[in-house]
Specification:
Blueprint: H1 2-12, H2 17-26, H3 30-37, E1 48-51, H4 61-78, E2 83-88, H5 94-107, E3 111-115, H6 121-130, E4 135-139, E5 148-154, H7 163-173, H8 187-192, E6 196-199, H9 201-213, E7 226-230, H10 237-246, E8 251-254, H11 280-289, E9 293-297, E10 304-310, E11 313-317, H12 319-336, E12 345-349, H13 355-362, E13 366-370, H14 374-386, E14 393-398, E15 402-404, H15 414-430, H16 435-446, E16 448-457, H17 460-476, E17 481-482, E18 485-492, E19 497-500, E20 506-508, E21 517-521, E22 526-531, E23 537-546, H18 549-567
Parallel strand pairs: 2-3, 2-4, 3-6, 7-8, 7-9, 12-13, 12-14
Antiparallel strand pairs: 1-5, 4-5, 9-10, 10-11, 14-15, 16-23, 17-18, 18-19, 18-21, 19-20, 21-22, 22-23
Helix pairs in contact: 4-5, 4-7, 9-10, 10-15, 12-13
Length: 569
Protein backbone atom coordinates (compact mmCIF):
# COMPACT_ATOMS: atom_id res chain seq x y z
CA UNK A 1 0.00 0.00 0.00
CA UNK A 2 2.77 2.46 0.92
CA UNK A 3 4.74 1.58 -2.21
CA UNK A 4 1.65 2.07 -4.38
CA UNK A 5 1.02 5.49 -2.84
CA UNK A 6 4.61 6.49 -3.48
CA UNK A 7 4.44 5.39 -7.11
CA UNK A 8 1.16 7.27 -7.61
CA UNK A 9 2.70 10.46 -6.25
CA UNK A 10 5.74 10.02 -8.50
CA UNK A 11 3.34 9.92 -11.44
CA UNK A 12 0.88 12.67 -10.46
CA UNK A 13 2.53 15.06 -7.98
CA UNK A 14 4.05 17.26 -10.67
CA UNK A 15 2.65 20.64 -9.65
CA UNK A 16 5.60 21.59 -7.44
CA UNK A 17 9.18 21.05 -8.67
CA UNK A 18 10.40 20.70 -5.08
CA UNK A 19 8.13 17.69 -4.58
CA UNK A 20 9.22 16.11 -7.85
CA UNK A 21 12.86 16.35 -6.77
CA UNK A 22 12.13 15.03 -3.28
CA UNK A 23 10.16 12.05 -4.55
CA UNK A 24 12.98 11.17 -6.94
CA UNK A 25 15.52 11.41 -4.09
CA UNK A 26 13.43 8.99 -2.00
CA UNK A 27 13.64 6.23 -4.58
CA UNK A 28 14.92 3.00 -3.03
CA UNK A 29 14.86 4.35 0.53
CA UNK A 30 12.08 2.39 2.20
CA UNK A 31 12.39 4.21 5.53
CA UNK A 32 11.94 7.66 3.97
CA UNK A 33 9.05 6.45 1.83
CA UNK A 34 7.35 4.83 4.82
CA UNK A 35 7.63 7.96 6.98
CA UNK A 36 6.16 10.08 4.18
CA UNK A 37 3.28 7.76 3.27
CA UNK A 38 2.40 5.49 6.20
CA UNK A 39 -0.55 7.69 7.16
CA UNK A 40 -2.42 10.84 6.18
CA UNK A 41 -1.77 14.02 8.13
CA UNK A 42 -4.52 14.13 10.75
CA UNK A 43 -7.11 16.91 10.42
CA UNK A 44 -8.68 17.98 13.70
CA UNK A 45 -9.92 21.14 15.38
CA UNK A 46 -6.37 22.49 15.10
CA UNK A 47 -6.32 21.70 11.36
CA UNK A 48 -3.12 20.21 9.93
CA UNK A 49 0.49 20.49 11.05
CA UNK A 50 3.48 18.59 9.76
CA UNK A 51 6.84 18.58 8.06
CA UNK A 52 6.92 20.32 4.69
CA UNK A 53 7.57 17.85 1.88
CA UNK A 54 6.28 15.08 -0.35
CA UNK A 55 3.81 12.49 0.86
CA UNK A 56 0.44 12.03 2.52
CA UNK A 57 2.05 12.53 5.94
CA UNK A 58 3.64 15.83 4.90
CA UNK A 59 2.38 19.35 4.29
CA UNK A 60 2.40 20.21 0.59
CA UNK A 61 0.17 21.72 -2.09
CA UNK A 62 -1.79 18.46 -2.34
CA UNK A 63 -2.49 17.84 1.35
CA UNK A 64 -3.35 21.54 1.74
CA UNK A 65 -5.57 21.26 -1.33
CA UNK A 66 -7.41 18.24 0.01
CA UNK A 67 -8.06 20.00 3.33
CA UNK A 68 -9.32 23.09 1.54
CA UNK A 69 -11.64 21.01 -0.64
CA UNK A 70 -13.05 19.55 2.58
CA UNK A 71 -13.44 23.02 4.09
CA UNK A 72 -15.12 24.25 0.91
CA UNK A 73 -17.65 21.43 1.14
CA UNK A 74 -18.36 22.39 4.76
CA UNK A 75 -18.84 26.07 3.87
CA UNK A 76 -21.13 25.19 0.98
CA UNK A 77 -23.18 23.00 3.34
CA UNK A 78 -23.92 25.96 5.61
CA UNK A 79 -24.06 28.88 3.17
CA UNK A 80 -25.26 29.59 -0.38
CA UNK A 81 -22.83 32.49 -0.80
CA UNK A 82 -19.93 31.40 1.33
CA UNK A 83 -16.90 33.50 2.22
CA UNK A 84 -13.58 32.58 3.83
CA UNK A 85 -10.76 34.79 5.14
CA UNK A 86 -7.12 33.71 4.73
CA UNK A 87 -3.87 34.78 6.41
CA UNK A 88 -0.35 33.40 6.41
CA UNK A 89 2.96 33.91 8.20
CA UNK A 90 6.62 33.89 7.12
CA UNK A 91 7.13 30.13 6.97
CA UNK A 92 8.42 28.30 3.93
CA UNK A 93 5.63 28.07 1.32
CA UNK A 94 3.08 29.81 3.57
CA UNK A 95 2.20 32.28 0.82
CA UNK A 96 2.02 29.43 -1.74
CA UNK A 97 -0.34 27.38 0.43
CA UNK A 98 -2.49 30.45 1.16
CA UNK A 99 -2.93 31.33 -2.52
CA UNK A 100 -3.66 27.71 -3.45
CA UNK A 101 -6.32 27.60 -0.73
CA UNK A 102 -7.90 30.79 -2.10
CA UNK A 103 -7.88 29.36 -5.64
CA UNK A 104 -9.59 26.15 -4.51
CA UNK A 105 -12.25 28.06 -2.59
CA UNK A 106 -12.91 30.27 -5.62
CA UNK A 107 -13.30 27.20 -7.85
CA UNK A 108 -15.89 25.90 -5.38
CA UNK A 109 -17.97 29.07 -5.61
CA UNK A 110 -16.71 30.55 -2.34
CA UNK A 111 -15.30 34.08 -2.14
CA UNK A 112 -11.87 34.23 -0.55
CA UNK A 113 -10.57 37.29 1.30
CA UNK A 114 -6.80 37.16 1.65
CA UNK A 115 -4.28 39.51 3.26
CA UNK A 116 -1.78 41.07 0.82
CA UNK A 117 1.18 40.14 3.03
CA UNK A 118 1.93 38.03 6.07
CA UNK A 119 -0.24 38.81 9.08
CA UNK A 120 -0.55 37.49 12.66
CA UNK A 121 -2.97 34.67 13.40
CA UNK A 122 -5.16 36.90 15.63
CA UNK A 123 -5.69 39.25 12.67
CA UNK A 124 -7.19 36.29 10.81
CA UNK A 125 -9.58 35.71 13.70
CA UNK A 126 -10.51 39.39 13.56
CA UNK A 127 -11.01 39.37 9.78
CA UNK A 128 -13.33 36.35 9.95
CA UNK A 129 -15.60 38.17 12.38
CA UNK A 130 -15.28 41.63 10.82
CA UNK A 131 -16.03 40.38 7.29
CA UNK A 132 -18.74 38.01 8.56
CA UNK A 133 -17.07 35.02 6.95
CA UNK A 134 -18.22 31.45 7.23
CA UNK A 135 -14.71 30.20 7.95
CA UNK A 136 -11.06 31.17 8.04
CA UNK A 137 -7.67 29.70 7.22
CA UNK A 138 -4.25 30.66 8.52
CA UNK A 139 -1.11 29.01 7.18
CA UNK A 140 1.34 28.68 10.08
CA UNK A 141 3.10 26.19 12.32
CA UNK A 142 3.29 28.72 15.14
CA UNK A 143 6.61 28.31 17.00
CA UNK A 144 7.75 25.00 15.47
CA UNK A 145 11.16 24.67 13.75
CA UNK A 146 11.56 25.69 10.10
CA UNK A 147 10.85 22.26 8.62
CA UNK A 148 7.20 22.50 9.76
CA UNK A 149 4.19 24.32 8.44
CA UNK A 150 0.51 24.07 9.25
CA UNK A 151 -3.06 24.81 8.23
CA UNK A 152 -5.43 26.14 10.89
CA UNK A 153 -9.14 26.31 10.14
CA UNK A 154 -11.51 28.73 11.88
CA UNK A 155 -15.26 28.94 12.26
CA UNK A 156 -17.49 32.02 11.80
CA UNK A 157 -17.06 32.92 15.47
CA UNK A 158 -13.32 33.53 14.96
CA UNK A 159 -12.41 30.50 17.07
CA UNK A 160 -10.63 27.47 15.69
CA UNK A 161 -13.03 25.10 13.99
CA UNK A 162 -15.24 23.12 16.37
CA UNK A 163 -15.29 19.29 16.56
CA UNK A 164 -18.47 18.80 14.48
CA UNK A 165 -17.28 21.04 11.66
CA UNK A 166 -13.81 19.48 11.76
CA UNK A 167 -15.35 16.01 11.51
CA UNK A 168 -17.36 17.13 8.49
CA UNK A 169 -14.23 18.47 6.78
CA UNK A 170 -12.41 15.21 7.54
CA UNK A 171 -15.28 13.11 6.18
CA UNK A 172 -15.04 14.93 2.85
CA UNK A 173 -11.24 14.67 2.82
CA UNK A 174 -11.53 10.91 3.25
CA UNK A 175 -13.67 10.70 0.09
CA UNK A 176 -11.80 13.11 -2.17
CA UNK A 177 -9.09 11.94 -4.56
CA UNK A 178 -6.12 14.13 -3.69
CA UNK A 179 -5.11 14.61 -7.34
CA UNK A 180 -8.29 14.41 -9.42
CA UNK A 181 -11.13 15.70 -7.23
CA UNK A 182 -9.73 18.92 -5.76
CA UNK A 183 -11.17 21.82 -7.77
CA UNK A 184 -8.96 24.80 -8.51
CA UNK A 185 -8.55 27.83 -10.76
CA UNK A 186 -5.85 30.36 -11.54
CA UNK A 187 -5.30 32.79 -8.64
CA UNK A 188 -4.86 35.90 -10.80
CA UNK A 189 -7.92 35.04 -12.87
CA UNK A 190 -10.02 34.60 -9.72
CA UNK A 191 -8.68 37.93 -8.42
CA UNK A 192 -9.72 39.74 -11.63
CA UNK A 193 -13.16 38.11 -11.55
CA UNK A 194 -13.74 39.17 -7.94
CA UNK A 195 -13.79 35.61 -6.63
CA UNK A 196 -10.71 36.45 -4.56
CA UNK A 197 -10.30 39.84 -2.88
CA UNK A 198 -7.42 41.31 -0.93
CA UNK A 199 -8.21 42.41 2.62
CA UNK A 200 -7.81 46.18 2.70
CA UNK A 201 -5.79 48.49 4.93
CA UNK A 202 -9.04 49.70 6.50
CA UNK A 203 -9.47 46.32 8.19
CA UNK A 204 -5.89 46.45 9.49
CA UNK A 205 -6.37 49.99 10.81
CA UNK A 206 -9.65 49.04 12.49
CA UNK A 207 -7.96 46.11 14.19
CA UNK A 208 -5.12 48.31 15.48
CA UNK A 209 -7.62 50.87 16.80
CA UNK A 210 -9.50 48.15 18.67
CA UNK A 211 -6.22 46.85 20.11
CA UNK A 212 -5.47 50.37 21.34
CA UNK A 213 -8.94 50.56 22.90
CA UNK A 214 -8.08 47.66 25.24
CA UNK A 215 -5.59 49.84 27.14
CA UNK A 216 -6.12 49.71 30.87
CA UNK A 217 -4.37 53.01 31.71
CA UNK A 218 -4.96 55.15 28.59
CA UNK A 219 -3.60 58.32 30.22
CA UNK A 220 -0.29 56.73 31.19
CA UNK A 221 2.80 58.33 29.60
CA UNK A 222 4.94 55.60 28.02
CA UNK A 223 7.55 57.82 26.37
CA UNK A 224 10.14 56.93 29.02
CA UNK A 225 9.85 53.16 28.43
CA UNK A 226 12.76 51.47 26.63
CA UNK A 227 11.94 48.24 24.76
CA UNK A 228 13.96 45.74 22.75
CA UNK A 229 11.66 43.82 20.40
CA UNK A 230 12.20 40.81 18.15
CA UNK A 231 9.54 39.43 15.81
CA UNK A 232 11.72 36.30 15.33
CA UNK A 233 11.58 36.69 11.54
CA UNK A 234 7.78 36.57 11.69
CA UNK A 235 4.48 38.39 11.22
CA UNK A 236 4.53 40.54 14.35
CA UNK A 237 7.02 43.10 13.08
CA UNK A 238 4.65 45.65 11.53
CA UNK A 239 1.52 45.39 13.74
CA UNK A 240 3.37 45.21 17.07
CA UNK A 241 5.53 48.21 16.21
CA UNK A 242 2.48 50.08 14.88
CA UNK A 243 0.45 49.65 18.05
CA UNK A 244 3.39 50.51 20.32
CA UNK A 245 3.87 53.72 18.33
CA UNK A 246 0.16 54.50 18.70
CA UNK A 247 0.31 54.29 22.51
CA UNK A 248 3.45 56.40 22.75
CA UNK A 249 6.23 53.85 23.18
CA UNK A 250 8.83 55.84 21.27
CA UNK A 251 12.00 53.99 22.21
CA UNK A 252 11.69 50.58 20.54
CA UNK A 253 14.89 48.90 19.35
CA UNK A 254 14.09 46.08 16.91
CA UNK A 255 16.62 43.24 16.73
CA UNK A 256 18.07 43.78 13.21
CA UNK A 257 19.05 40.14 12.59
CA UNK A 258 15.45 39.00 13.23
CA UNK A 259 13.44 41.92 11.86
CA UNK A 260 12.66 40.69 8.34
CA UNK A 261 10.55 37.64 7.45
CA UNK A 262 12.57 34.47 6.89
CA UNK A 263 11.00 31.01 7.11
CA UNK A 264 14.41 29.41 7.58
CA UNK A 265 14.78 31.20 10.94
CA UNK A 266 18.58 31.41 10.57
CA UNK A 267 19.12 33.09 13.94
CA UNK A 268 16.47 31.13 15.86
CA UNK A 269 16.26 27.42 14.92
CA UNK A 270 13.47 27.14 17.51
CA UNK A 271 11.51 30.40 17.05
CA UNK A 272 9.72 29.90 20.33
CA UNK A 273 9.55 32.77 22.86
CA UNK A 274 9.24 30.18 25.63
CA UNK A 275 12.96 29.34 25.38
CA UNK A 276 16.05 31.42 26.08
CA UNK A 277 17.74 30.55 22.78
CA UNK A 278 15.13 32.60 20.91
CA UNK A 279 16.19 35.65 22.96
CA UNK A 280 19.94 35.41 22.26
CA UNK A 281 20.06 38.19 19.66
CA UNK A 282 17.77 40.39 21.76
CA UNK A 283 19.91 39.81 24.85
CA UNK A 284 23.00 40.86 22.92
CA UNK A 285 21.31 44.08 21.79
CA UNK A 286 20.13 44.70 25.35
CA UNK A 287 23.77 44.94 26.49
CA UNK A 288 24.03 48.31 24.78
CA UNK A 289 20.41 49.52 24.81
CA UNK A 290 19.75 48.72 28.52
CA UNK A 291 15.97 48.40 28.07
CA UNK A 292 13.26 48.09 30.69
CA UNK A 293 11.77 45.17 28.78
CA UNK A 294 12.54 42.59 26.10
CA UNK A 295 9.66 41.35 23.92
CA UNK A 296 9.70 38.37 21.52
CA UNK A 297 6.72 37.31 19.41
CA UNK A 298 6.62 33.96 17.61
CA UNK A 299 6.37 33.67 13.79
CA UNK A 300 2.58 34.02 13.61
CA UNK A 301 2.54 36.51 16.49
CA UNK A 302 -0.03 34.85 18.68
CA UNK A 303 2.44 34.21 21.53
CA UNK A 304 4.78 36.63 23.27
CA UNK A 305 7.63 36.07 25.73
CA UNK A 306 9.40 38.69 27.84
CA UNK A 307 12.61 39.25 29.77
CA UNK A 308 13.14 41.71 32.62
CA UNK A 309 16.41 43.27 33.91
CA UNK A 310 17.70 41.71 37.13
CA UNK A 311 21.08 42.53 38.69
CA UNK A 312 22.65 43.54 35.39
CA UNK A 313 21.26 40.56 33.47
CA UNK A 314 17.85 39.63 32.07
CA UNK A 315 15.46 37.06 33.46
CA UNK A 316 12.87 35.35 31.26
CA UNK A 317 9.40 35.16 32.78
CA UNK A 318 7.23 32.09 32.23
CA UNK A 319 3.81 32.21 30.60
CA UNK A 320 2.28 31.61 34.02
CA UNK A 321 4.27 34.51 35.50
CA UNK A 322 3.11 36.91 32.80
CA UNK A 323 -0.47 35.62 32.89
CA UNK A 324 -0.70 36.20 36.64
CA UNK A 325 0.91 39.65 36.34
CA UNK A 326 -1.43 40.73 33.55
CA UNK A 327 -4.55 39.45 35.29
CA UNK A 328 -3.57 41.28 38.46
CA UNK A 329 -2.72 44.46 36.53
CA UNK A 330 -6.00 44.47 34.61
CA UNK A 331 -8.08 43.87 37.75
CA UNK A 332 -6.07 46.27 39.92
CA UNK A 333 -6.08 49.19 37.49
CA UNK A 334 -9.62 48.74 36.20
CA UNK A 335 -10.85 48.65 39.79
CA UNK A 336 -8.90 51.84 40.54
CA UNK A 337 -10.14 53.75 37.48
CA UNK A 338 -13.74 52.51 37.71
CA UNK A 339 -13.84 50.57 34.44
CA UNK A 340 -14.08 47.04 35.85
CA UNK A 341 -17.48 45.63 34.84
CA UNK A 342 -19.91 44.08 37.27
CA UNK A 343 -19.36 40.34 37.64
CA UNK A 344 -16.09 40.28 35.65
CA UNK A 345 -14.99 37.02 34.02
CA UNK A 346 -11.47 35.75 33.38
CA UNK A 347 -10.53 32.43 31.78
CA UNK A 348 -7.50 30.17 32.01
CA UNK A 349 -6.65 26.63 30.95
CA UNK A 350 -6.52 23.73 33.41
CA UNK A 351 -2.72 23.49 33.06
CA UNK A 352 -2.16 27.16 33.97
CA UNK A 353 -1.19 28.50 37.39
CA UNK A 354 -3.62 28.39 40.30
CA UNK A 355 -2.16 31.70 41.52
CA UNK A 356 -4.71 33.31 39.21
CA UNK A 357 -7.58 31.85 41.23
CA UNK A 358 -6.34 33.69 44.33
CA UNK A 359 -5.94 36.93 42.37
CA UNK A 360 -9.37 36.66 40.77
CA UNK A 361 -11.06 35.91 44.09
CA UNK A 362 -9.50 39.02 45.63
CA UNK A 363 -11.24 41.21 43.05
CA UNK A 364 -14.54 39.32 42.89
CA UNK A 365 -13.73 38.02 39.42
CA UNK A 366 -15.18 34.72 38.21
CA UNK A 367 -12.25 32.62 36.95
CA UNK A 368 -13.25 29.83 34.60
CA UNK A 369 -11.05 26.79 33.88
CA UNK A 370 -11.12 25.28 30.39
CA UNK A 371 -9.25 22.58 28.49
CA UNK A 372 -5.91 23.30 26.85
CA UNK A 373 -6.37 25.13 23.56
CA UNK A 374 -7.25 28.77 23.16
CA UNK A 375 -10.44 27.98 21.26
CA UNK A 376 -11.95 26.99 24.61
CA UNK A 377 -11.17 30.46 25.96
CA UNK A 378 -12.70 31.96 22.82
CA UNK A 379 -15.82 29.86 23.37
CA UNK A 380 -16.27 31.41 26.82
CA UNK A 381 -16.21 34.88 25.25
CA UNK A 382 -18.78 33.66 22.70
CA UNK A 383 -21.07 32.41 25.48
CA UNK A 384 -20.95 35.86 27.07
CA UNK A 385 -21.55 37.55 23.71
CA UNK A 386 -24.63 35.42 23.10
CA UNK A 387 -26.07 36.93 26.31
CA UNK A 388 -24.98 40.46 25.38
CA UNK A 389 -22.42 40.37 28.19
CA UNK A 390 -19.09 40.21 26.35
CA UNK A 391 -17.90 43.31 28.23
CA UNK A 392 -17.67 41.10 31.36
CA UNK A 393 -14.68 39.30 29.81
CA UNK A 394 -11.56 41.00 31.13
CA UNK A 395 -8.71 38.59 30.43
CA UNK A 396 -7.86 35.10 29.20
CA UNK A 397 -4.58 33.21 29.09
CA UNK A 398 -2.83 29.88 28.77
CA UNK A 399 0.56 29.02 30.23
CA UNK A 400 2.09 28.59 26.77
CA UNK A 401 2.49 32.37 26.40
CA UNK A 402 -0.94 33.13 24.96
CA UNK A 403 -3.00 36.09 26.25
CA UNK A 404 -6.15 37.95 25.26
CA UNK A 405 -8.07 41.03 26.31
CA UNK A 406 -11.12 42.41 24.53
CA UNK A 407 -13.76 40.44 22.63
CA UNK A 408 -13.01 41.34 18.99
CA UNK A 409 -10.44 38.51 18.59
CA UNK A 410 -11.12 34.91 19.62
CA UNK A 411 -7.58 33.57 19.70
CA UNK A 412 -4.45 34.39 21.64
CA UNK A 413 -3.04 37.71 20.48
CA UNK A 414 0.59 38.80 20.87
CA UNK A 415 -0.19 42.26 19.47
CA UNK A 416 -2.67 43.00 22.28
CA UNK A 417 -0.44 41.28 24.84
CA UNK A 418 2.69 43.20 23.78
CA UNK A 419 0.81 46.47 24.22
CA UNK A 420 -0.55 45.51 27.65
CA UNK A 421 2.84 44.22 28.82
CA UNK A 422 4.49 47.50 27.84
CA UNK A 423 1.78 49.51 29.57
CA UNK A 424 2.02 47.34 32.69
CA UNK A 425 5.81 47.66 32.80
CA UNK A 426 5.59 51.45 32.43
CA UNK A 427 2.92 51.72 35.12
CA UNK A 428 4.87 49.78 37.72
CA UNK A 429 7.98 51.73 36.77
CA UNK A 430 6.15 54.87 37.92
CA UNK A 431 5.54 53.05 41.21
CA UNK A 432 9.24 52.28 41.58
CA UNK A 433 8.85 48.56 40.84
CA UNK A 434 9.81 46.21 38.04
CA UNK A 435 7.73 43.17 37.14
CA UNK A 436 9.90 40.76 39.13
CA UNK A 437 9.24 42.76 42.28
CA UNK A 438 5.52 42.86 41.54
CA UNK A 439 5.47 39.10 40.98
CA UNK A 440 7.25 38.51 44.27
CA UNK A 441 4.68 40.66 46.07
CA UNK A 442 1.91 38.50 44.57
CA UNK A 443 3.63 35.34 45.85
CA UNK A 444 3.98 36.84 49.33
CA UNK A 445 0.33 37.86 49.34
CA UNK A 446 -1.32 34.78 47.80
CA UNK A 447 1.17 31.90 48.15
CA UNK A 448 4.19 30.59 46.26
CA UNK A 449 2.60 28.94 43.23
CA UNK A 450 5.54 27.82 41.11
CA UNK A 451 5.17 26.03 37.80
CA UNK A 452 7.15 24.20 35.15
CA UNK A 453 6.53 22.37 31.91
CA UNK A 454 8.52 19.49 30.45
CA UNK A 455 8.17 18.10 26.94
CA UNK A 456 9.52 14.91 25.44
CA UNK A 457 9.70 14.48 21.67
CA UNK A 458 9.07 11.16 19.92
CA UNK A 459 9.49 11.54 16.17
CA UNK A 460 8.11 9.41 13.38
CA UNK A 461 5.81 6.41 13.25
CA UNK A 462 7.42 4.69 16.24
CA UNK A 463 7.18 7.90 18.27
CA UNK A 464 3.47 8.28 17.55
CA UNK A 465 2.79 4.75 18.75
CA UNK A 466 4.93 5.27 21.88
CA UNK A 467 2.97 8.37 22.87
CA UNK A 468 -0.32 6.51 22.39
CA UNK A 469 0.98 3.63 24.54
CA UNK A 470 2.12 5.94 27.35
CA UNK A 471 -1.22 7.74 27.51
CA UNK A 472 -3.21 4.50 27.32
CA UNK A 473 -1.30 3.15 30.33
CA UNK A 474 -1.94 6.30 32.38
CA UNK A 475 -5.66 6.14 31.60
CA UNK A 476 -6.01 2.44 32.40
CA UNK A 477 -3.57 2.13 35.32
CA UNK A 478 -3.00 5.51 37.01
CA UNK A 479 -0.49 5.11 39.86
CA UNK A 480 -1.44 5.83 43.48
CA UNK A 481 2.16 6.71 44.35
CA UNK A 482 4.60 8.50 42.03
CA UNK A 483 8.27 8.39 43.02
CA UNK A 484 7.30 8.13 46.69
CA UNK A 485 4.71 10.91 46.54
CA UNK A 486 1.19 9.80 47.42
CA UNK A 487 -1.51 10.80 44.93
CA UNK A 488 -4.75 12.03 46.47
CA UNK A 489 -6.87 12.56 43.34
CA UNK A 490 -6.70 11.34 39.74
CA UNK A 491 -8.63 13.28 37.11
CA UNK A 492 -9.16 11.48 33.83
CA UNK A 493 -10.45 13.97 31.28
CA UNK A 494 -10.98 11.24 28.68
CA UNK A 495 -13.61 9.55 30.84
CA UNK A 496 -14.64 12.82 32.59
CA UNK A 497 -14.13 11.18 36.00
CA UNK A 498 -12.33 12.58 39.03
CA UNK A 499 -11.51 9.94 41.67
CA UNK A 500 -10.45 10.49 45.28
CA UNK A 501 -8.01 7.65 45.98
CA UNK A 502 -8.52 7.76 49.77
CA UNK A 503 -12.31 7.36 49.68
CA UNK A 504 -12.68 5.98 46.13
CA UNK A 505 -15.44 8.54 45.60
CA UNK A 506 -15.88 9.84 42.08
CA UNK A 507 -17.28 13.01 40.58
CA UNK A 508 -17.94 14.20 37.04
CA UNK A 509 -15.57 16.60 35.27
CA UNK A 510 -17.79 19.11 33.51
CA UNK A 511 -15.58 19.68 30.48
CA UNK A 512 -15.39 18.11 27.00
CA UNK A 513 -13.54 14.81 26.86
CA UNK A 514 -9.80 15.13 26.24
CA UNK A 515 -6.73 12.91 26.29
CA UNK A 516 -5.45 14.32 29.60
CA UNK A 517 -4.67 12.82 33.03
CA UNK A 518 -4.10 14.96 36.13
CA UNK A 519 -2.56 13.89 39.45
CA UNK A 520 -3.18 15.95 42.59
CA UNK A 521 -1.24 15.74 45.86
CA UNK A 522 -2.14 16.48 49.47
CA UNK A 523 -0.22 19.78 49.67
CA UNK A 524 -2.16 21.35 46.77
CA UNK A 525 0.50 20.59 44.16
CA UNK A 526 -0.30 18.73 40.95
CA UNK A 527 0.92 17.69 37.57
CA UNK A 528 -0.96 17.10 34.36
CA UNK A 529 0.05 14.86 31.45
CA UNK A 530 -1.15 15.28 27.85
CA UNK A 531 0.12 14.68 24.32
CA UNK A 532 0.62 17.76 22.17
CA UNK A 533 -2.05 18.26 19.56
CA UNK A 534 0.36 19.87 17.09
CA UNK A 535 3.79 18.31 17.69
CA UNK A 536 5.16 14.76 18.27
CA UNK A 537 5.50 15.43 21.99
CA UNK A 538 4.15 14.33 25.32
CA UNK A 539 3.98 17.11 27.89
CA UNK A 540 3.56 17.36 31.61
CA UNK A 541 2.74 20.48 33.57
CA UNK A 542 3.88 21.04 37.14
CA UNK A 543 2.00 23.26 39.58
CA UNK A 544 3.79 23.33 42.93
CA UNK A 545 2.78 25.17 46.08
CA UNK A 546 5.32 26.08 48.76
CA UNK A 547 5.49 28.13 51.94
CA UNK A 548 8.30 30.22 50.48
CA UNK A 549 10.39 30.52 47.33
CA UNK A 550 12.86 27.81 48.29
CA UNK A 551 10.24 25.21 49.23
CA UNK A 552 8.20 25.90 46.08
CA UNK A 553 11.28 25.55 43.87
CA UNK A 554 12.24 22.31 45.62
CA UNK A 555 8.73 20.96 45.11
CA UNK A 556 8.92 21.78 41.38
CA UNK A 557 12.18 19.81 41.11
CA UNK A 558 10.70 16.89 43.02
CA UNK A 559 7.62 16.74 40.76
CA UNK A 560 9.68 17.12 37.59
CA UNK A 561 11.75 14.10 38.65
CA UNK A 562 8.61 12.18 39.56
CA UNK A 563 6.99 12.94 36.22
CA UNK A 564 10.09 11.98 34.29
CA UNK A 565 10.20 8.61 36.04
CA UNK A 566 6.47 8.12 35.52
CA UNK A 567 6.90 8.50 31.76
CA UNK A 568 10.03 6.37 31.75
CA UNK A 569 12.13 8.95 29.90
Amino acid sequence: MIKEKYELWCKKAVGDPDLVAELKAMEGNEELISEAFYKDLEFGTAGLRGTIGAGTNRLNIYTVGKATQGLAAYVNSVSDNGTVAIAYDSRIKSDVFAKISASILAANGIKAYIYKELMPTPMLSFAVRRLKCDAGIVITASHNPAKYNGYKAYGPDGCQLGPEAADYVLSIMNKVDIFDEVKSMDFETALKEGKIEYIGDDIIDEYLSLVESTRVSPDLDLSDLKVVYTPLHGAGNKPVRAVLKRIGVENVSVVPEQELPDGNFPTAPYPNPEIRQAFECALKLAETVKPDLLLATDPDSDRVGIAIPENGEYKLLSGNDVGALLLNYVLERRTANGTLPENPVAVKTIVSTELCKKIADAYGCDLKNVLTGFKFIGEQVLHLEEKGEENRFVFGFEESYGYLSGSFVRDKDAVIASMLICEMTAYYKTQGQNLLEVLDSLYKKYGYFYSAQKSFTFEGQAGTEHIKSLMAELHSNPPAVIDGIEVTTVKDYETSVSRNLATNETSKIDLPKSNVVAFEFSDGSSFIVRPSGTEPKIKFYINALGSDSASAAAKVDQLVNAGTKLLGV
